[in-house]
């Protein structure tokens, strides 16, 4: 539990951080440290340097602009969970953030660090995929924007290149008649998601006009459950309709991609994923105001 | 007794320093010139060591020394096993503190680095090059017993550490051949990994000029550590001081004296400076002792009306790669002798095979043998109820040992002290509104909801124990306890005890005993423990014995003080001793309570000794060495209520009600705390905890991210009730309560889940009852595989 030796740099701006990353190709970026520090202490990684971006101005906080909710990458899980803006405009995100780890983790861990680490058992990637988030990525040559569908590339890999930093995440502000929710089968030890289901539905004139469902925890990177979405659109969101649609989730889970471990096998996770999809949809439907 | 102190739930006097960070643990202690040790542990479960190259590590920054088995061979004797189970063909494999040529579990020690800082020590570990030749491993006890299994210790045939048998009562074959009903089950008591809040640590300071050694150690029993260290390291006991400073929990995992402790001492002796070793949490998972790990084949014979006629079992107990200090006694003496439970069972037979496996050694873990026994008995009784279509409460009642208050013999050879098992169950059924719960369960089932009720009626053996028995069962120590009570001139009291509490609250309850016996305020009593240089010899804190044995020693020492004080008081009041009376700290002539001498008056006079009775020594101090005439047998009845989600297999614990009887309660708040903690640890076994090795012997649950400890938000409020049945042989009537909850609760929760699943046809699920296991059992029972 004693990390190997490393050099430490504190960046005061995104540009400085990007420059430091170019100087130290073996370095790791440190934000809240809740994924990185345990890896260092277990000596599973030995980067030559850490570049601390935790005190860069302007990378923290939640604001609304032009129909978007923009979240700074250094915003903590606790801040996400407590945000009135998110609670009303992106309920699933604040709900999921409130289920991460425990208070100590939520007070230190950041949304940017979480999604850049892209642990498949993490909660936020599925939610951001469900809500159609966009990711702002800065490098020495400027900033680019990547859609959630392209951001999460696979097991612990994202569109962020080695010399880049994730700076902000934007999601569309919720519209009237829309509700979202996150349901989680949490691992009894780690509290990571064994299965995480995020759902967003819009109801107009008593029927579902739009649906987005994404799963995490049981797949290397979050996936949309198109079959579930298709089964809902155009229907009244009754308990039976939701249950029937939830059972279509298997169509979106390729057998060879589902993850299993000593606690819960891939077969089991696939078989019961519908339970959490159902819960997320039921809660989301109840929130369509 | 003082009504305001003994028996009242005063606050724990330990807590202010613990919760404000003022307590000092082994790792908090820093000595001048102190170096730090780090241990290189085997990454293989079974391998031959071809060579070890330490050259690079030796030259690394800050490194003072690197030692391997070649350096320690002949200097550190093998770590001793101190429970030499008789009549069991016990075969003790040498447990070399640093492996000589073979490693036998992931975590076996291969080398030690001593450096100026902890970071430098860990950095140097990475520079040691070990050439291993991997060998086949075996991790499950029953597989270890099989023909063709990899052999751990060349000289020990078939990996068998021992074969122990208990037979009692009538002919067991006849009981089963003539039985009207037989129920059977195979149970896996999975391996559990204790997680004390404070990991283990040792600080050794050897002074070459005097030959004196002081050891600070995270132990439950410092006097045993001193005894064993003197044997293994060769420092005579008079020059060896062992201090257990603040110790942050143990649950049995801090009974053993470990190779790491001996190695740290060796390093200090070799280098002539203090050396500290503190384990990481990863090492705690890998190399601090584990618990349970049984495979149990069990069966029960009964009549058609539900009267038990016999119990038979075969148990394969995984012992790990070596026998830890007290390990052989746990799955045998503390397990097999308790198979009668709270029932009148006329014939019992059990075979226990202890097997070496390529895993971390097992030891006592809260309950130590008794949870595994209670689970067997309580499962069988529930199976019998299910088979006969009777309520589980009713089958229990048909078999309970009737109320007794001064001894009851069971066929395993034990004499229970006192009990009213039907009384505890009746109270439980009333407090929980059991009949109403059954009605709610029936109603829920109509709506496709699966609610289950689980009972566990238990008795356990603790307050270990008479020393003659200790000798007869091969325990290489005594099991008496000691206490010194010393009054200072101002009437303040020091109590020195041989036990070593580490979370159980005896600094409070022992002060309450003194308050009850001598009428002083608990605030005027300091309880001193854990330092072999200033406490009397004692055998330690485990087996729920600190109050049950040490508390008796203390009460008797206090009574010696009272007797002496009465003589002094009579002298001062110019009365005959036989005319004296005593009440709540005051001595007076019978009928004249207004003219009295307080215990504080007497303490002052005894210490200045200006006017003492003829022939009475100065001072007010007494010592007692108390060897109990029998064990104590607390008991109770627990109920768990669960709901199972059949779609996912998730188990929700909805309610938990406990009735426990530990005799008179010195401090009911502390009793309740012990009951809570104990119950939660047992629930952990039922629902969440499992130490998992893969077939190669790699530990897959080696961090807190993988090994699921109970968390408060997954538990209901625990409803605690009690009955009070004094032990007839204890001076205060009290019985132990530290392990009772754990002994009872695993079976209660398990029985509740099986009860919930009964309509779905599920009869058994391996623990822990994870959602996947429950879901699969439902699929299998419904023919849906």
How does the SSE layout of this entry go?
The complex is a heterodimer of chains A (289) and B (785).
Chain A: E1 7-10, H1 14-23, E2 28-30, H2 36-41, E3 49-52, E4 62-65, E5 68-72, H3 77-82, H4 84-89, H5 91-98, H6 103-108, H7 111-117, H8 124-130, E6 134-139, E7 142-147, H9 148-151, E8 152-154, E9 157-158, E10 165-172, E11 178-186, E12 193-204, E13 207-216, E14 223-224, H10 226-232, H11 239-246, H12 266-286
Parallel strand pairs in A: 1-3, 2-3
Antiparallel strand pairs in A: 4-5, 5-10, 6-7, 6-10, 8-9, 11-12, 12-13, 13-14
Helix pairs in contact in A: 10-11, 11-12
Chain B: H1 15-19, E1 35-41, E2 47-53, H2 55-58, E3 63-68, H3 69-72, E4 102-103, E5 109-115, H4 118-125, E6 129-134, H5 141-145, E7 160-169, H6 172-177, E8 181-192, E9 201-207, E10 212-217, H7 222-233, E11 240-243, H8 259-271, E12 275-278, H9 281-287, E13 291-302, E14 308-320, H10 333-336, E15 347-356, H11 370-388, H12 392-399, E16 408-409, E17 415-416, H13 421-432, H14 434-446, E18 450-459, H15 467-472, E19 481-487, E20 493-497, H16 506-518, E21 525-528, H17 546-572, E22 580-583, E23 586-589, E24 596-598, H18 599-608, E25 620-626, E26 635-644, E27 651-661, H19 668-687, E28 718-722, H20 740-757, H21 771-781
Parallel strand pairs in B: 1-12, 10-11, 14-15, 20-21, 27-28
Antiparallel strand pairs in B: 1-5, 2-4, 2-6, 3-5, 7-15, 8-13, 9-10, 9-12, 13-14, 16-17, 18-26, 19-20, 19-25, 22-23, 23-24, 26-27
